[in-house]
Amino acid sequence: MEIRQLSYVEAVARYGGFTRAAERLHVAQSAVSSQVRALEVELGVTLFARTTRKVALTPAGEMFVARARRILAELDGARSEMTEITAVVSGRVLVGATAGLGPYDLAGALARFRDRHPQIAVRLRSGRITGLLGACDNGELDLVVGPAYADLPPRFDAVPLADERLILALPPGHAQAHGGRLTLGEVRDEPFVSMPPGSGLRWILEDAARSAGFLPRVYFETHSPAGVRELVAAGLGVGLLPRTVAETYGGPMIAVRQLHPPPAHPPIGVMHQRNRPLSVAAQSLRHHLVEVAGRDLPVPGNQQPPAGLEPAAGEEPEVMSAGTP
User: Fold this and answer.
1) Exposed site from 3, 20, 257, 267, fewest CB < 10 Å?
2) Measuring CA to CA, which residue among 40, 47, 45 is closest to residue 13?
3) Cβ pair 135, 205 in contact under 8 A
């Protein structure tokens, strides 16, 4: 049994005759007839009932054609995948990433991608999510990795890579440094440390404070979540931080308290502009980032941030993050 025989049988069934099948396949009718006949002899069944007026599938032929179509579809898929692989020999991908990516290890993912596709050059640019999405709109970036907010414009496609939680960071000697959960309103009179207006972390802080009935007094601003952590550790105020930043970044000790209700943090995702087709190289990197995360389902731009911000069962309500005493 040969692949071309499957193609001939499928074409005869599709076009209703040997002459039309031969025309579509750009081969002689005698070649189609002889190959189908040879296949019937090999299988020991009649696939087509032939009359002077028409050609029709027999019951055995219907079963065979259904399976042949599945086989041919799989072969077409394999050819497409191999074409993509051979096409990804060179290229450049421009990626924008925010400073805080939670538990997602972008550097490690990019290193593995480089090992897999050494001919593809990846250029990385850092910034705030609003600026990066604007650059993606303008064609300056192919992909953006950062928080996928609930109000992400529908022209962007987003695939989640990791979930993150927000906690309240306090200096170790703070009066509220120990205990169970507390509300954000309990520290309403404290000086806050945060990122500048327009940043995602600042927006979340102000939104959560409004829900608690106050406007936070931000005395110190810094460019990154890691900078917020350092200023809090120095005793300059309290601040909202992604839990990953609070617990895994090196530096002086800080106290960590769970908040109730926990402020919602959007999932970390990889985004691109739907109206601008991605190059094969950019598609490959996007697929790789999602594969590393163990995710595969896109989230619509208007989907609310996922739940899961509550501590897991058995999780301690207070944590002293690692750092240099």
Assistant:
1) 3
2) 47
3) no
User: In 3D, which of 162, 135, 134 has the Cα closest to residue 146?
Assistant: 162
Rounded to an integer, what distance in angstroms lies between the CA atom of residue 212 and that of residue 183?
Answer: 8
Express each pLDDT in 87-119 by its tens digit: 555 689 999 998 878 788 999 999 999 998 998
Give the β-pairing of 143-147 and 255-257. Answer: unpaired
Per DSSP, what are the bridge partners of residue 158?
271, 299
For residue 208, what pLDDT is reported?
93
CA distance 101 to 53: 68
> Parallel, antiparallel, or unpaired for β 239-242 and 91-97?
unpaired
323 phi and psi angles, rounded to 5 deg: 175, -175
Q: How far is CA 172 from CA 17, 140, 160, 233, 320, in A?
A: 83, 43, 34, 7, 8
pLDDT in tens, 179-214: 888 999 999 999 999 999 988 889 899 999 999 999
Q: Over 60: is that where the pLDDT of 75 sits?
A: yes
CA distance readout (Å), 38 to 5, 19, 27:
9, 18, 17
In the structure encoding, which two tokens stand for residue 116, read together? Answer: 């897999």
Q: Averaged over 266-280, what is the pLDDT?
A: 91
294 Cβ contact partners less than 8 Å away, ≥ 6 residues apart: none
Q: What is the pLDDT of residues 129-147, one digit of tens each?
A: 889 999 999 999 999 999 8
At 140, give phi and psi (nearest 5°): -80, -20
- Map out the domains of the chain with their CATH numbers: 3-87 (1.10.10.10), 91-163+266-293 (3.40.190.10), 166-264+310-320 (3.40.190.10)
Q: How far apart are CA 97 and CA 133, in angstroms?
A: 10
